[in-house]
Specification:
Oligomer: single chain
CATH class: Alpha Beta
Number of helices: 5
Radius of gyration: 17 Å
Largest sheet: 8 strands, mixed
Shape: globular
Structural class: alpha/beta
Strand content: 15-25%
CATH superfamily: Glycosidases
Order of helices and strands: EEHEEHEHEHEHEEE
């Protein structure tokens, strides 16, 4: 079954003007909402913070009966232990009665935000600690990035968690090792899936948002 939804609802992609009812009328039946992210820097390293729109986004979704999936943007630069970061996420998500369908680790990097063996170990601990809640767990990433991680450390343990794969503009997603082909819990098949479609980026409006598109295969 294919279900359409909003692939990212966060303080950068939703606004006071975001019209969740419009999203629902257009067929959105779920959204992936960010609960925690990087906060102020302490001693040269990022701390953690609750997403500024997490509570209001969840309230809007729950009012409409939209299914939610909840993620943490995992910052590999943080020197907090995986357990400390996990507990912050758990405490935040418990404010809303849990994560919904999935608790997700958003695992990505950029040219200046990169992983190493130490941050992979913290990610492993984060997932393990959050999993002790009994929540359904998933890793969100894209194939080439998981391939990079596999070259840095043993990631065979990732198979213990479900995969939400971002693999855009292809007919079928490529699931990287250690997952099996077509075993993904969900496939994000385009990057044009922001919650800001139903609001605006700035006032006055300077940029329009692309169409939402996210497929969940169940």
């Amino acid at each position: 079954m294919t279900i359409l939804g909003i692939g990212d609802a966060s303080e950068f992609d939703t606004f006071p003007t975001t019209d969740w009812s419009k999203a629902y009328r257009m067929g959105c039946r779920f959204a992936i909402v960010r609960a925690t992210t990087t906060g102020a820097w302490v001693a040269g390293k990022p701390s953690l913070k609750e997403d500024l729109r997490y509570l209001e986004n969840v309230k809007a979704m729950d009012t409409l009966g939209m299914q939610r999936q909840t993620y943490a943007w995992f910052d590999p630069r943080s020197q907090l232990t995986g357990a400390e970061q996990a507990q912050f996420f758990i405490n935040t998500v418990n404010k809303t009665g849990g994560p919904g369908q999935f608790a997700i680790a958003d695992v990505e990097g950029t040219s200046n935000i990169y992983y190493n063996a130490g941050s992979i170990a913290r990610l492993k601990e984060w997932l393990y600690v959050v999993a002790q809640t009994g929540w359904r767990m998933a890793i969100y990433s894209y194939p080439s990035f998981i391939d990079q991680l596999a070259g840095m450390a043993d990631i065979s343990w990732m198979i213990d968690y479900e995969l939400i794969i971002a693999n855009w503009d292809v007919l079928t997603p490529r699931n990287p090792w250690p997952w099996h082909p077509r075993a993904e819990a969900a496939w994000q098949y385009t990057g044009a899936m922001k919650g800001s479609k139903y609001g605006y980026y700035a006032n006055p409006i300077t940029k329009t948002s692309p169409l939402i598109c996210m497929a969940v295969m169940e």
